[in-house]
């Protein structure tokens, strides 16, 4: 079951990532937004896409959408803090190009979020 969920999570995350990268690139390249701020905007867009797919498809949670959303949002905020901190360090201290930095961060944050979402946000185990 966890492998099936992980596969669906990857698809949902991939779609969220496309929304993230697309909006971030639009903000930076077309709107002149700084890269780290663009990453925050992109991350927020990814939250909406990812929540809907994860609630109803990945985890098929019977937890109330209100309960799962606030938990998902807290996990996402933690992910945002991790994402922003790593982006800041990679771009401002190591001088990496913002897209290279974001693609590197994408390898770390989703794994953490999957575990937290599976065992907390969407879990229907007795509390």
TrEMBL record:
Protein name in UniProt: GtrA family protein
Lineage: Bacteria, Pseudomonadati, Pseudomonadota, Betaproteobacteria, Neisseriales
Residue intervals of the GtrA/DPMS transmembrane domain: 8-122
InterPro entries: GtrA_CellWall_Glycosyl (IPR051401), GtrA_DPMS_TM (IPR007267)
Family of the protein in this entry: Belongs to the GtrA family.
Record's keyword terms, sorted: Membrane, Transmembrane, Transmembrane helix
Subcellular location: Membrane
Matching Pfam families: GtrA_DPMS_TM
Mode of membrane association: Multi-pass membrane protein
Chain segments annotated as transmembrane: 9-31, 37-57, 69-91, 97-116
Domain of life (superkingdom): Bacteria
């Amino acid at each position: 079951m966890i492998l099936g969920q992980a596969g669906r999570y990857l698809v949902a995350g991939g779609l969220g990532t496309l929304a993230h990268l697309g909006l971030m690139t639009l903000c930076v390249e077309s709107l002149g937004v700084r890269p780290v701020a663009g990453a925050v905007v992109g991350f927020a867009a990814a939250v909406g896409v990812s929540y809907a797919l994860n609630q109803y498809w990945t985890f098929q949670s019977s937890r109330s959408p209100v309960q799962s959303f606030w938990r998902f949002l807290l996990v996402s905020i933690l992910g945002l803090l991790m994402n922003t901190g790593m982006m800041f360090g990679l771009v401002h201290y190591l001088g990496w190009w913002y897209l290279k930095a974001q693609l590197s961060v994408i390898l770390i944050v989703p794994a953490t979020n999957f575990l937290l979402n599976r065992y907390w946000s969407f879990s229907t185990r007795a509390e």
